[in-house]
From TrEMBL:
Annotated PANTHER family: DIHYDROLIPOYLLYSINE-RESIDUE SUCCINYLTRANSFERASE COMPONENT OF 2-OXOGLUTARATE DEHYDROGENASE COMPLEX, MITOCHONDRIAL, DIHYDROLIPOYLLYSINE-RESIDUE SUCCINYLTRANSFERASE COMPONENT OF 2-OXOGLUTARATE DEHYDROGENASE COMPLEX, MITOCHONDRIAL-RELATED
Protein name from the UniProt record: Dihydrolipoyllysine-residue succinyltransferase component of 2-oxoglutarate dehydrogenase complex
Protein role: E2 component of the 2-oxoglutarate dehydrogenase (OGDH) complex which catalyzes the second step in the conversion of 2-oxoglutarate to succinyl-CoA and CO(2).
Cofactor: (R)-lipoate
Residue span(s) of domain Peripheral subunit-binding (PSBD): 204-241
Gene3D superfamilies, A to Z: 2.40.50.100, Chloramphenicol acetyltransferase-like domain (3.30.559.10), E3-binding domain (4.10.320.10)
GO molecular function (one): dihydrolipoyllysine-residue succinyltransferase activity
Pathway note: Amino-acid degradation; L-lysine degradation via saccharopine pathway; glutaryl-CoA from L-lysine: step 6/6
InterPro entries linked: 2-oxoA_DH_lipoyl-BS, 2-oxoacid_dehydrogenase, 2-oxoacid_DH_actylTfrase, Biotin_lipoyl, CAT-like_dom_sf, E3-bd_dom_sf, PSBD, Single_hybrid_motif
Enzymatic class: transferase
UniProt keyword annotations, A-Z: Acyltransferase, Lipoyl, Transferase, Tricarboxylic acid cycle
Encoding gene per record: odhB
EC number: 2.3.1.61
Swiss-Prot/TrEMBL catalytic activity: N(6)-[(R)-dihydrolipoyl]-L-lysyl-[protein] + succinyl-CoA = N(6)-[(R)-S(8)-succinyldihydrolipoyl]-L-lysyl-[protein] + CoA
Amino acid sequence: MTIEIKVPVLPESVADATIATWHVKAGESVKRDQNLVDIETDKVVLEVVAPEDGVLGEILNEEGATVLGEQVIAKLEQGGSAEKAAPAKSETKEAPKADAGGASVDIKVPVLPESVADATIAAWHVKAGEAVSRDQNLVDIETDKVVLEVVAPNDGVLSEVLADEGATVLAEEVIAKFTEGASTGAASAPAPTATESDESDNDALSPSVRRLLAEKGVDPAKIKGTGKGGRITKEDVEQHLKSGGSAPGPAASAAAPEVAAVAGERTEKRVPMTRLRKTIANRLLEAKNSTAMLTTFNEVNMKPIMDLRKQYQESFEKRHGIRLGFMSFYVKAVTEALKRYPEVNASIDGDDIVYHNYFDISIAVSTPRGLVTPVLKDTDMLGMAGVEKGIKELALKGRDGKLSMAELQGGNFTITNGGVFGSLMSTPIINPPQSAILGMHKIQDRPMAVNGKVEILPMMYLALSYDHRIIDGKESVGFLVTVKEMLEDPTRLLLDV
């Protein structure tokens, strides 16, 4: 039976998406809930998983292709098998011991920016004794806002880990020992134990399995995966819960099964905040306590921009190599409004007001580790294509934890687009020391009165949160009206009127 693999339904404010990464090749076997492909929109990356066990028969859209909501992008042959899907090995060679003759190298924390005092070991991707290849990521090190990857300097073995996950470390501190050119049986052992298999696959869990584990409060290390390579499936989690939420075995089933069953439904999981989450929490609290924040609202008819995008989308993408999204219109409209209302582009420093004669706009980006606001600089000097390319680059770096401190510092004003998640209206919180933030929302068809008649138009609410200590009602309302006028008549952006 052939199953069509489709692009998920996109939010109304997102017109199309891009194939970012195929994780499976045509002809390869896959398991149910295994991630097949990452699909990228303006601000989020969507994972498309296999609906059933089978073989990915045909890929219709390669990486980089622009696709629409519910478009068929691949075919899956249900229950099929592929020749390249892990044939059994006829013989197993004895794993050689680690070669002690290689040079020993210290693995150190990278040099941290001047504004960052220390960092935290976030995740080790390699265990002590395991063989690695040159440039393979060994460990993620987390600072307040960015994640740094430390890679293997050469082929060899990670011989010793000196700083465990969660440890606080300093710049250039030695966190592990590495033996160059050595080999170990860890990489070629015939089969890991059930516990090792579960632990190594935790980071590769599919979104649905991660969600189910979080909802039920189940530790994945206690579940024996039956999927490919010991991968945990939804069925494994459900079976684990049916058996009383404990690891399988006669001893576990004999020990108070009724109590275990109740506990399986009412468990708790305590996880320490990451450094990034702590920083976000502190900054949000600071914004609420140190500013006189108010929010003013307006709404925009998005039909002119949607018609313009539809008319020029194809030629724009051919000429500039990137699709035309809504964010470039938002950024250009905000830049023009900031020119007309310099108070909104200013900030308070002690008893002084600092007026900025440049336009650096922070773009709120949702990442797996939390919300970050990388800065798109000199937006008044960028064209629409330059804005689109800049936003895409920042969004990809944010998703992969590759943003530098320089890309996260500064910014005079912030734009956040909750519409991609379906938000109809919100009151965004100011990003200190900035004085204002603009929230864009879901584009939704609504009946509107136009020249005495009712028309159905694609409308979007705007929300401007601002610091009333520096921005008065006149400036805040005027700023928002300017953004509205620019978006409802995008020709104004070209004619500067």
